[in-house]
Structure formats: structure tokens, C-alpha cells
Amino acid sequence: MNVVKLSAVALALILGTSVQAKEKAPTIINQEIVIDAPIEKTWEILGPQFENAQVWASSIKHSEALDNESLNGSNCTSRACSISGMGEVKETLISYSNENHSLSYEVNEGMPNMVKYASNHWQLIDLGNGKTKLKMKIEMKTGGFMGWMMNGMMRKKMTKLSSEISEEFKYYVENGKPHPRKIKANKKS
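The structure corresponding to this sequence follows.
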């Protein structure tokens, strides 16, 4: 019995080491959705109100600016979010453009240890006739044996989460009130 346990531990260590030795391509998750609102209205909620994601995103219980600094006109450069099922995370803007209606941020703290890097890029595109396309791109790198084992589960969870977030953002921009999923989440809190 001890030989079996020892063999299993050795195999896990070998696999974990070989997984860590290779530079793995990041997991990329893309979402797109068309919003029935002009780009200026849509950008106002996404960009200048970056720190207020808890108003419309059901997975975010609380969010707030961590500073009063500006990156190319932003109101802050980092925010803290309390995310259902994940806990507290800190995010820092790495790009912000009022002109291009885009922003990107990295998650600096609060992800599981197996997540070595996580970022999100949001881009708005003016489709004319009062319509805007939202393009979201999540990039995530996992590492170690647990990262290798859990990568598929993390992809599935992040794909579902990003789909819900884009739907909720669309709903909030179009209706001026939170999505029913957000209202339900608020009642649970």
C-alpha cells in the first residue's frame, strides 16, 4: 500500500514539475454583445464609472476605488472588488482610453494561487444608429500541477462569468437599472 501512495506522490511531483517547466499559452476567453445604446452613454458607465461595477454586476457584491490617481483621464487606477465565490480581489488599470472607448486591467491580488496572471480588456465599438458593440477579452495563465488540473474548470467558470457580466452590463446600459440577476444577488446579501 505504501508503494502505491509513494508512486502516486512521485507521479504528481513529476507531472507538476514538467507542467511548470513548460511556458503554457494563456487561456483566452472572448465575449461580444451588441448594446442598444450610443457609445457615449455606454462608455460613461464602463470607463468613468469603472470603480462602480457593483451597481450592475451580480457577481460583484462591493467595489470601490483604491486611489484618486488618473491613467489617461480615468477617475482611479485601481479598485477593490468583493466577488461572489472568489472573495476580495484588487484590480489595476493597465490601459484606459476615452478616445478609443477601451480599458484593460490586471487582477493583482485575490486570485487562487494556481492563477499566475489574469487580465480583462473591454473595447466598445460604435455601430451607428444608437448601437454599440462590447468586446471583452479575458486572459488567464495558470501554473503548477493544480493549475494544470483545474485549467478546464477555470475556463468554464470564467466563460460563464464573463457571459453573465456582459449580459448584465448590456441590461444596465439599456434600461438604467440592474439586471434581475443583480437584484436577486442583492437580496441574498
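The two ends are 48 Å apart (CA to CA).
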